[in-house]
Amino acid sequence: MHAKESKKPTLSFWQIWNMSFGFLGIQFGFALQGGFMSRIFQTLGADKDAIPLLWIAAPLTGLLVQPIVGYLSDRTWHSRFGRRRPFFLIGAVMSTIALFFAPYSSALWMAAGALWILDASINISMEPFRALVADKLPDSQRSYGFVVQTLIIGIGTWVASNLPWFMTQIGIPNTAEAGVVPDSVKFAFAVGAVVLFGSILYTILTTDEYPPEDLDAFKRENEESKGFINGLQEIFKNIAGMPPVMKQLGIVQFFSWFAFFTMWSFATPAITEHVFKATDTTSQVYNDAADSVGNYLGTYGLVSMFFALILAFVTSKVKINRKMVHMLSLIAGGVGFISIYFVQTPWMLHLCFALVGVAWASILSMPYAMLSSAVNPKQMGVYMGIFNMFIVIPQIVAALGGINFSYKLLFGEEVIYTMVLAGTSLIIAGLANLLITDRSATHDG
């Protein structure tokens, strides 16, 4: 633990809630993107095997954007907006616009471009939110802080994933002519855009940030190191000097995010085809089934919310072994994914995705709690951005053929085997936690 950490005051639940509330909107964007962009791609005529490639621009952009945003936010201080909040605002404006217009795409290239802009914009806001928790909380509250974020993310996942279904229930059509995205999806994305902007603005208005301890020295250091080339050199230097815990967590993250990218890319075609026997994207059967997939994805968000509530209560009372919690949670999620293959009736999918929700809650909290205890607080933003490399690299590998090659080689040609692949990957991620041995990272301070 770093010496300065002990000087940070303990914050109340509502203070942590306010500083994390913007994640509600961020997750609205991610849930709508993850749950329904593949549906949009299929509606616009994409072949199932081509779907992962249409997603590739998003993680490629994240690979570049996240470290740069983290580096810049570490070196930003505004007397009114602080260090991280300027990036919240920039990302919120761009994300809101992209989220609103994405379902109005009339061609695949437009939808892929909208996804690219949306993902890049959300990322501009997301990692500074992670860094803000580490900025404001003492080490003893880190697990608690990231778990509260996960609670808010779970709420956002559940509500946003069910929005198209809800729109259908109130009478908005969920079918349209060939090549046109249904109105239920368009309305859902519009609601998501409003929530995204409003929730991030709430955090900006209700949360203060701690200024640098020596503002003059902070300004001098930034003046000496400013410039694009100096910035890149500093980022590469930090990558080369990343702590061992970060490298070990990188292996866990690789297999975790490969699994979830597989789900986002293939859950809709896999479940609509295997469970509902529906493949015609213009049919009522397919679109009802696609709405139902949103319900199941909402289940993993809902369960992640309840699991986060349990973790929030536990971490506020006792110290936990972060590594063991994460390992068992990921293995549970892997079992949930594999179980989808054996589903006989649709309601059983809720049980499968409930297990996935346990893994999701842990993915969004435990790695960041472990990492934040192992890096220099002055470099928290850039290291949170660099850590994102271990999220986007597996997505790039998956999009470039890793999913299609792996599931067909290991299991078979049917698209449902993508869920078996996701489960296998998540179990490997869980076991990889055994590589982490640094007690200061694995246990609460």
Automatic annotation (TrEMBL):
> Which residue intervals define the domain Major facilitator superfamily (MFS) profile in the entry?
245-445
- Example GO molecular function term? transmembrane transporter activity
**Mind telling me which residue stretches traverse the membrane in this protein?**
53-73, 85-102, 146-167, 187-205, 249-267, 293-313, 325-342, 348-370, 382-403, 415-436
Q: What topology does it adopt in the membrane?
A: Multi-pass membrane protein
Extract the SUPFAM superfamilies matched here.
Answer: MFS general substrate transporter (SSF103473)
Q: Which GO terms describe its cellular component?
A: membrane
Give the subcellular location: Membrane
Keywords in alphabetical order, please: Membrane, Transmembrane, Transmembrane helix, Transport
InterPro entries from the xrefs?
A: MFS, MFS_dom, MFS_trans_sf
Q: Which PANTHER family match?
A: SOLUTE CARRIER FAMILY 45 MEMBER 3 ISOFORM X1, SUGAR TRANSPORTER
Q: Would I find Transmembrane helix among this entry's keywords?
A: yes
Coiled-coil annotated spans: none
PROSITE patterns in UniProt: MFS (PS50850)
Q: What is this protein called?
A: Maltose transporter MalT
Q: What is the lineage of its organism?
A: Bacteria, Pseudomonadati, Bacteroidota, Cytophagia, Cytophagales
